[in-house]
Specification:
little secondary structure; Pectate Lyase C-like; two-stranded antiparallel ribbon; 1 helix; 6 strands
């Protein structure tokens, strides 16, 4: 894996920490010239800037360790514990950390590009401004984690848990979120008049069967996303962009969808019961078989939309533009 002579000593205050290195070597076992860590204990240690690149640190304990700027590129951290560790600006590119525990750790600005993080635990961790582009994080847990401004382009997050996570300004284009749980997550612009952090970008994301129940998604970009069978119950989606997205069988019951842009989007057999779609732009959208019962569609644009089989009992509308291609008739809706 790496030759013994490549081990770089830790330097603190300009002096070589020979004793710390000796302790490390005494706790390692060797396979030829390749050391392999066996339940190493680094809890609470000051290891800032330490070079662990390429090392096998499986099951090591780094709880509460100071690892700012440490280098773990290509290292193996399978099953390791890094709870409450300070990993700000650290380098974990391509790290093997399946099943590792990063709960409450500070990974602000860390580089986890292409990292293997399957079933890893990041609950309550700070990952703001971190890079996880192309990371494999299927079934990982990010509950209540802070991912504001993080990059997750093409990240694999199948069945991952991001409940209550903060994802403002996150870049998640083409990420895979199939079956992911994002209940109560914050992805959209917040504050009065949509001020504050910018919304997350999820263009082209694969979020089939993902659960966004109660999520804050104001102004989020979901253009060209695959949202089949996803749940957006009671989600805040004002000003969101669904242009060319596929959301067949999705559930938007009681969601707030005012001012959304959904040009040519597909919502076949989707549920919008009790949803607010005022000022929504649904021109050319396919709503075949959708349910709009008890929804509000004031000033909604349904021009050239497909409305065949749409259920509108109890829907309230004023000034709806409906020159639909099929099932076209303004009398589908009850004016107030």
């Amino acid at each position: 894996m790496w030759p013994l002579e490549s081990i770089k000593p830790l330097r603190v205050g300009g002096k070589t920490a020979a004793f710390a290195m000796t302790v490390w070597l005494m706790t390692a076992c060797f396979d030829g010239a390749n050391p392999k860590a066996t339940s190493l204990q680094f809890a609470g240690q000051d290891l800032r800037g330490r070079d662990f690149s390429g090392m096998d640190l499986s099951s090591a304990n780094f709880d509460g360790a100071r690892l700012t700027g440490a280098n773990f590129v290509g290292a193996k951290l399978t099953g390791a514990s890094l709870k409450n560790a300070d990993l700000r600006e650290s380098y974990l590119r391509g790290v093997q950390a399946n099943g590792a525990n990063f709960a409450e750790a500070d990974l602000g600005g860390a580089d986890l590009t292409l990292a293997h993080l399957e079933k890893a635990n990041f609950d309550g961790a700070n990952l703001s401004r971190s890079r996880l582009d192309g990371a494999q994080a299927n079934e990982a847990s990010f509950d209540r984690a802070v991912l504001s401004g993080a990059h997750l382009v093409k990240a694999q997050l199948v069945q991952a848990r991001l409940r209550g996570a903060y994802l403002e300004s996150a870049l998640m284009n083409q990420a895979v979120l199939r079956g992911a749980m994002l209940q109560g997550a914050i992805l959209g612009a917040t504050g009065a008049a949509h001020q504050g952090p910018s919304p997350a970008k999820l263009a082209g994301v694969d979020a089939r069967e993902a659960d966004f129940t109660g999520a804050q998604m104001t102004s989020v970009d979901l253009s060209e996303a695959n949202l089949k069978s996803a749940r957006f119950v009671e989600a805040r989606l004002e000003h969101a962009n669904f242009t060319w997205s596929h959301a067949d069988l999705a559930n938007f019951s009681k969601a707030r969808l005012g001012w959304v842009r959904a040009y040519s989007a597909r919502f076949r057999h989707a549920q919008f019961d009790g949803a607010v779609l005022s000022q929504a732009q649904l021109e050319g959208a396919d709503l075949t078989g959708a349910s709009l019962r008890s929804s509000t569609l004031d000033n909604t644009n349904l021009n050239q939309a497909k409305l065949e089989g749409v259920a509108t009992e109890g829907a309230q509308a004023q000034h709806v533009l409906t020159h639909a291609t099929t099932g076209a008739s303004p009398v589908l809706f009850q004016s107030r």
